[in-house]
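Researcher: I'd like a candidate sequence for this fold, 332 residues long. If you have to choose between options at a position, lean toward the conservative one.
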């Protein structure tokens, strides 16, 4: 979602759609929210729950999902997934291929008007069929619209690199036993553990966000609180709202992503890495007081920090110098 803010299309789409009736704009996801803030886009509500959970409690006539992706199939797969989970008709707008798509026949006319106003082409959505099934003791889920070279993330954890357009995750007893079409990162699979395959959040991406020269800075009231963050920081705003003064981040990509976000709020990090960065973002910037520590295994040392310093809590009281000395002592 971040690219639609970075390329300026978000405001242009809003200007068109608002002519059709009362409009409620929302953004979901960490990187989309950051891109919206960096580009000073206003009048958009920030969701603090899953979009599907939120939308089904509201009262609307139509849902429009606007994205900027690498192919139209990604948008088509996205609106198809959403159409199975929400109670409203849905239109997809994809700004890279200049495409408007609709799922339900009854909204073809409004989709055509939007396409004409945007000067985009119009198409009917695709029925991707059944992408989840059970055979004996095994569960299968096909990942739609993947592209070779993408990173595959399951519940925010990188599990491998896509090497085929046909990707199928195989589970037995709620454990992933294979991912067809993917060069698997065994360590990522181990991190996930037990999984609800049917409802798991699965993403196929090359980057979370391209490098952008737009950046906002937001003053925050800080308390003497320290966060422990792993798994790319999908809940980073919960920690920011707690008023943390610093954070300990575990993993190369988590450190890059979280450190880049927190720099906007003048919050330093102590990043624990082991040099296996996958590169989910480009051009990250860290607070000047941040410290990066390279260890043999970031997961193992992170576990020690979590258990011995944080006492298995995600937030503890303290300040940057205090946590720095505690980690240095543990490291020695």
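Model: Candidate sequence:
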């Amino acid at each position: 979602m971040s690219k639609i803010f970075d390329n300026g299309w978000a405001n242009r789409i809003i200007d068109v759609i608002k002519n059709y009736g009362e409009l409620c704009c929302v953004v979901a996801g960490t990187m989309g929210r950051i891109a919206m803030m960096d580009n000073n886009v206003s009048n958009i509500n920030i969701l603090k729950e899953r979009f599907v959970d939120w939308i089904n409690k509201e009262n609307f006539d139509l849902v429009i999902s606007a994205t900027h992706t690498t192919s139209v199939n990604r948008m088509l797969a996205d609106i198809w997934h959403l159409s199975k989970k929400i109670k409203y008709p849905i239109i997809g707008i994809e700004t890279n291929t200049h495409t408007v798509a609709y799922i339900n026949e009854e909204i073809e006319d409004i989709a055509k008007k939007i396409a004409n106003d945007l000067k985009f082409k119009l198409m009917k959505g695709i029925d991707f069929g059944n992408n989840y099934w059970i055979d004996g003791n095994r569960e299968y889920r096909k990942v739609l619209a993947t592209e070779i070279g993408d990173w595959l993330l399951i519940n925010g954890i990188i599990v491998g690199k896509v090497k085929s357009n046909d990707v199928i995750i195989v589970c037995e007893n709620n454990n992933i036993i294979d991912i067809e079409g993917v060069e698997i990162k065994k360590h990522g699979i181990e991190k996930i553990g037990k999984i609800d395959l049917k409802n798991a959040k699965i993403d196929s991406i090359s980057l979370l966000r391209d490098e952008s020269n737009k950046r906002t800075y937001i003053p925050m009231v800080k308390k003497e609180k320290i966060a422990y963050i792993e798994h790319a920081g999908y809940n980073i705003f919960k920690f920011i709202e707690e008023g943390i003064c610093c954070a300990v981040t575990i993993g190369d990509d988590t450190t890059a992503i979280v450190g880049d976000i927190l720099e906007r709020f003048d919050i330093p990090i102590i990043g624990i890495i082991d040099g296996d960065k996958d590169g989910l973002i480009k051009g990250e910037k860290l607070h000047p007081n941040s410290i990066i520590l390279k260890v043999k295994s970031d997961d193992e040392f992170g576990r020690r920090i979590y258990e011995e310093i944080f006492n298995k809590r995600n937030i503890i009281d303290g300040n940057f110098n205090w946590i720095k000395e505690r980690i240095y002592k543990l490291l020695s």
